[in-house]
Amino acid sequence: MRKAEVIYKKELAGLLTQLDDGSFEFKYNELWFNDVTKPSISLTLPKTQQEFKAKHLFPFFYNMLPEGSNKQIVCFENRIDTNDHFGILITTAKYDTIGAVQIKKIEN
Q: Where is the HipA N-terminal subdomain domain (predicted)?
């Protein structure tokens, strides 16, 4: 199992988890959820206490991944399998992203 913090404008918004079977879960942080001034991170992930579950990486996060030759370079330089979307996400979305969301790996 791998986990990452979902940071929205430098504040913890939720937790993204890849389970051992390859599926994914996303859950909003309790403090984020309880603050009515905090928005959902995506229209496809509305602010709710329920845990979102998916067999594949959620489209919102998948769209943060590099494509084409940029993806190839990232994978080659960091020795990441091109099909390891979670690995690519936690490698590329921790600092430089388009938009307000960053992804930071939680070390076990």
A: 5-103
